[in-house]
Amino acid sequence: MANKYGRQKIGAILFWLIVWQICSIWIGQEILLVSPVAVCGKLRKLVQEVAFWQSVAYSTWRIMGGFFLSVLCSVTAAACSAKYRLLEILLQPMVSAVKATPVASFIILALVWVSSANLSVLIAFLMGFPVVYGNLLQGFRQADKQIWEMVCLFHVHRKIRYYWFPQLFPYMRAAMATGIGLCWKAGIAAEVIGMPEGSIGERLQEAKIYLQMPELFAWTVVIVAVSVCIEKCILFLLDKWEWKNKGQSIS
Question: Average model confidence (pLDDT) for the chain?
Fold first, then answer.
C-alpha cells in the first residue's frame, strides 16, 4: 500500500511538471514562465557553488532556530496555561493578535527593533508560537485524567516520557507538520524584505531584480525541498521515538 501511494505521489508530481512544461512552451516567453528544464539546468549549476550551500545553511540555521525556540517557549507556556487558567486568559489576546496580523506587518515592524540578520529568527518564532502553543494546550486539556490517576497511584517514574509524551504526541506532530512550513514561508519573506547578506532571501531578491527567472524558480524549488525534507526528518524522528516508547511500555 505504501509503495502504491508513493508511486501515485510521484505520478502526480510528474503530471504537474508536464503541465508546467506545456504552459511554458505555449506562452513562449521565459521571462513570464520559465520551463522546468531550464530550472533544473540552473539548479544543477547552483549546487556546484559554495555560496549556494552557504546561503542554504544560513537561512536554515536561523529559520529553524526561531522555530525550535518557539517550540521550547510554547511547551512551557502551554503547560503553565493548562495548569493556571489566568495565564491562558492573559496569553489569549497576544496569541490571537499574532495569528491575525499579516506577516508583512510583523516584518516591517520588526525591522525597527532587530537587525536584518536576525529578522528571520524573530519572524519564525512569532509564526511558530501560536501553532505549537494552541495544539499543545489542547493536548494538555484532552489528556486522559484516569490514566494520570493510575500513573500517580502506582508511582510511575519518568511521567513525561511514559504519560505526557504519548498523550501529547498527536498534537505535537500536527503542530510540527503545520508549523515548519509556515515558519519557512514567513522566514523567507522576512529575508526577501530585510535582505540579510548571504541568505536565500537575498538571492531571491537579486534574481527578481535582474529578471533571472530560471534562478528565481530554482531558489523557490530549493526552499520547498529543504522545508519538506526537514519536516519529514523531524516527523520521522518523532514517530521513531513514539514507536520506541511504545515498545518499552509494552515490555
Answer: 84
